[in-house]
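note to self: the first set is below, dont mix up w the second
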Amino acid sequence: MARILVVEDNERLARLIADGLTAQGHVCDCVLSLGAADDALHAAQFDGLVLDLGLPDGDGVDWLRQRTGAVPPVLVLTARDALEDRIRGLDAGADDYLPKPFEMRELAARLRALLRRPGGRHDAILTLANLVYDPAGQSVHVDKAALELTRREAALIELLLRRAGQVVRRAAIENSLYTFDEAVTPNAVEAVVSRLRRKLDEAGAAVELHTIRGVGYMARARAA
């Protein structure tokens, strides 16, 4: 699972993209301008960016070229399909280029390919004790038996496994599990942790989710 930022000024198209990617198990935020994209990238960590080029407050290619902050892998999505436009976008820092109109399945597949690139977050299987998580297939196994998790439960175990043995702060968990538009109740994270703990215990996972009161959670192997 990944958190994706969709930068597209056609609100209906942005929502269609977000809905399609959410159906693939991702968390998606939509913004309608480059200024809002800057704010979003400053406020949260994203794994991928779907970027239109003709935005109300500027050109996406110029924005890419001029940005000084970190930018996740970028899939440019635009009606500009001339060769020179594609070259200009790629040279500015885009990782892939998909012209409009497009098929949602292809967009999702191209994003998966970007996320799987060597060195990316989604290129390695995560293992702790007898628990195995495959980011590419979004599958969880305990002693080779499949464990059925909800989207948020899978996102939580992935986040904790990537930092196994380290404390993951509650704010970082909220950032990974919820979009900006979703209301997060005071006990929302605790509820997800509780459900995940129960499923891990029932499956016989030799992994515990340790609570650091007032701070966050840590995944660690159970003591023998």
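second set (the one i keep forgetting abt)
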Amino acid sequence: MRKEHPLSEIAWADLQQLSPNAKAPHLAAKDGRLFHVLLAQQFNREQLDAIGELATNIRFIAKNEGGLKFLQDLLAHKRAMLYFTQPSTRTFLSFCAACQILGVKVGEVRDTATSSEFKGESQEDSVRTFSSYFDFIIMRTEVGGLAERMAWVLSNSDRPIPIINAGSGKDQHPTQALLDIYTLQRSFEEKGGIDGKTIVFVGDLLRGRTVRSLASLLTNYRNVRQIFVGPEKLQIGRDVLDMLEAAGVKYELSEDFRKAVPLADAIYMTRVQDEWDVEKGESKRIDISKYCFGVKHLALLKPAAVIMHPFPRRGEISPEVDHDPRAVYWRQMRNGMWIRAALIAAIFRRDAAIQEYYEESV
């Protein structure tokens, strides 16, 4: 069993020395297909197109009772553990819904006070325990690198089951980035696709793991310009800029939100991530009033542009903007359910069956 997965062939200390791009091949199965999903860098353009198409096919099939029954029979023999020790609404519920679409049975731990961790059990032992009962584990944790560590541990165990990173510390949130890319794919499918577009990221870019992951995925597209707009203390980190430079991606740093709005094909708004404050109240001392999208900005925005937000929002976008057709963040949220269903189906090799059923149905 131990040699079924490339992570069993590398020492933990050696894995930690690798860049995200270098780690990516170790996370796939032996045949190169998806297994662990931990990093945005795992996905290339071909895979992004394929998983987007699979999500769209699942959406279509699920529209009628017969199709939904077909989907629910696909993985009815599988069980998922949702280990969410960091607060979450949308990611947790969309993974639950995605599992239900595919017939997967779900268990959950959302509060370590109700688990043996309350008695002093390590997180590593907890996850090893889950692997005895479930076929894959979806993890959301405030501990950076924990999902990666557990993927390595399980790959070197007698039961190497997949780990899906649903948010790990301030590092990465790859499934959010996948649904963001899917939202952009659908938004621009009649407008030349994502290639050549300008994406403007706004807000807390330093600590926003959704921004880090999406910025990485966007490097798979041609001539995409990325503009990072926010106060100096919350500007994007050097590691992300190094990644963009290595990929030959054009980027700009700015504190002028109003100037950036007319340039955008997509505006990606974010909230202040004050849960990561080193000192209590630290974020409140940063003026973010200039980085909020209101009705006045709609006149500056391109007619074909879109406004996105990973949620939750706390005033970064006025509710009055919700009714504008360019505000796609509610659609973006629903896309999370479909793209996560597609991801799980691909991990368990059900993508071909879905494609075949779809072709017979259209």
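remember for set 2: The chain has a mean pLDDT of 92.
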